[in-house]
Amino acid sequence: MHIPDGYLGPPTYLAAYAACAPLWAVAARKLKATLDARRVPLLAIAAAFSFLVMMFNFPLPGGSTGHAVGGVLVAIAVGPWGALLSVSIAVVIQALLFGDGGITAIGANCFNMAFVMPFTGYYAYRVLARLFPSDRGRAVSAGIAGWIGLNAAALTTAVMFGIQPLLHTGADGRALYAPYPLSVAVPAMMIQHLTLFGAVEGLVTGLVVHYLQRSRSAWVLRKPEKEAA
Amino acid sequence: MKEYRPLLAALAVIALLTPAGVYLPELVKGGSAWGEWGVGEIRKLIGYAPREMEKTADAWKAPLPGYSLPGRKDTPPEPGLAYAVSAFVGIAACGGCAYLVARRLAARGGRDGRR
Fold it and tell me: For A10-221, which CATH class?
């Protein structure tokens, strides 16, 4: 899900940066207003956790790999705006230090993994957890929300890939950037994420919530009263 | 900080397990993630290298490319070891940056910032 350099044309990657700029600004304002100084280390741990989760590549038969992101779990712990900050930092470090995801695509990758995923997953979790408020219900809700969040991000990523041939095709009919149209990119990305990678994301999210509930770190899941929703 | 100790320990354990993220795909010939192919792989897939992609794909030289040592991306002697080291480098970099940014934000306006 990490779009490399050279896959997106300037209109797409610049638009993604432009979409992220106000989101980052709002995140800074929200955190400034609501972040309890004692929870600062939790945001750091969230960024490191998301970074680590993305290192676990799972292979799919047919020659592909993928990974979970942890974005929904992070959002349940630190709120969606905190997740936007934490996962964005992980995405930037991955691009700068490890060449995982392009420099030009940092905006696009943050939009997909640090915004779309935590926000869709977090609100899905809130709705589901209200319907099933028991400990077990909340853990299952978190798992389903993880699956939903990862797939929402996979969809926006696939759309970014898929619109490139529409925007940039040479006179000879050859693609200039990512070559596969929507009709190929969307099914390819979604089949992988709806099945294996989504299942991994859901299991990780649900099991960690389940485990945290009965550990002495259960406070991680309790929202501080004033934290922004 | 005491309440963070179990979480930090968990991060360390997860980091030590990361080599599974290299060896598992290797075991079943997982290949690249969809949409993350190198220019050479793209050429094999569609028969040519998209012109603009070829120009910009390798614009950035990361110090630890692919969570490995530079220049040995595909054939390091111990890919899992380099990967685990990258995991700890990543924890320090992500945790450090997020800590500094969050602390600044909390100190400026957080309700408990001056305690």
Answer: mainly alpha
Instruction: Provide the greatest CA pair distance for chain B.
Output: 63
From the CB of residue B33, how many other CB atoms can be counted at a distance below 10 Å?
Answer: 21
In a domain? residue B67: yes
Number of domains in chain B: 1
| Blockwise average pLDDT, block size 10, chain A, 229 residues | 97 98 97 93 98 96 90 97 98 97 98 98 97 97 98 98 97 96 97 96 98 94 61
Q: Do A93 and B62 touch (CB under 8 A)?
A: no
* pTM check: above 0.90: yes
B contacts of A3 (beta carbons < 8 Å):
35-36
Taking the C-alpha atoms of residue A194 and residue A68, their distance in angstroms, rounded to an integer, is 12
Task: Provide, as residue numbers in chain B, all residues whose Cβ is less than 8 Å from the Cβ of A1.
Answer: 33, 35
A63/B4 CB distance under 8 A: no
Q: Where are the domains of chain A?
A: 10-221
Give domain status of residue B24, yes or no.
yes
Judge whether A176 is closer than 8 Å to chain B, CB to CB: yes
ipTM of the complex: 0.93
| B33 chain-A contacts, CB cut-off 8 A | 1-2, 57, 64-67
Domain limits for position B41: 2-109
